[in-house]
What does this fold into?
Amino acid sequence: MKRTLIAQALDSKNDNSRILIKGWVRTKRDAKGFSFLEVNDGSCLKNIQIIVDASNPAYEILGEVNTGAAVEVTGALVPSPGKGQKWEVRANDIRVIGHADAESYPLQKKRHSDEFLRTIAHLRPRTNKYGALFRIRSESAFAVHQFFRNRGFYYLHTPIITGLDCEGAGELFRVTTLPPVSAEPEEADHLFEADFFGKEASLTVSGQLEAEMFACALGNVYTFGPTFRAENSNTPRHSAEFWMIEPEMAFADLKDNMDLSEELVKNLIAHVIDHCGSDLELFSRFVDKNLVTQLEIIAKESYVRLPYGEAIEILKASGDIFEFPVDFGTDLQTEHERFLCEKHFKKPVIVYNYPKQIKPFYMRLNDDNTTVAAMDLLVPKIGELIGGSQREERLAVLKQRIDESGLNRDDYWWYLDIRRFGTAPHSGFGLGFERFLMMVSGVTNIRDVIPFPRTPRHLEF
It folds into this structure.
């Protein structure tokens, strides 16, 4: 008999059909002449109730069934007289697939703290909250690919191991086959000649530079994969390993970039609302009661487009006291970003044309020679969700920007080549997938929206 997913069973139109359910026991309750099992297989938020009659031979093995056990149940799907459930299963046979130690199984029928559940990240997907969250994550990832495929973008796999620092921040994880050594300063320049690649290698912080190369051949491309940053930060917004969505468009300027970023965010939220209703409801009930209302605003209303200079003036005139000072030439901090989209405009804001000294070398220099064609999309509760720019396509200007950033032109010979051979305006951005999931779920810690978080001093699982 083919296995029936619980999500399919609960949505069934036919009663008395014989079905096979495989899942994990959430609870077991005994009554006079009956036992009730709540079983979940991960396909949906709701459990299905299994009724086992004392006259059933399978009743005798219920002593082996504890919370957490994996079971196989065959029986009839029948209307349920209980409240809050349409169907239940009257069991004909039950088989224990995997026993669970009742004394040590850590998940019980009570609410556990997020902090505790992080210590058992291998089991937390079995809880209602995290089962719902990771179903939303899966559906959101599907929606990303669907969005770009429907618009003619090609999916690109960019390197995870790189010899370049895209952001110029120096916060990279080194990749090496060399044993740990303490090199003398005069030996440091030659240390990596004996390494696997013959040069210093790191985990990538972005697939952008490679995506630019392919955009200048295929037109529109996107990457969607893991990126890494060795920033020693323990804030709820930072993780050493995270996933980035990075589209790149040829023959596109900053306005095209802002248009695409707004369209992507609206599309992804609408998809989650349409396809993850019951899971989303859990977060609107127990995490953020205003969640759905806020998501509908982000999905439907037009976004404010605000030059950086005007953003600074709004912040300075606000009367609010910020932890970080605000002045032209300083980067916006999360508190500034959230003020703009939560208090001042009460909707998403795209800030653009940032000072060149606070942005990477590859962003296109504006005619004022002071700002670059950069943009950040800010959303309530999160702050920056997307960061991007029109790229510098002019060879002479790009060389100058590389020099000003203290980088070696020779390392970027192939990046410069694109400006020599058929240069064209192109734009792109990066959307932090975990930050999107925090926005769409109301969850406030990035450690709770990625299956196995990697943070300073933490490398479990």
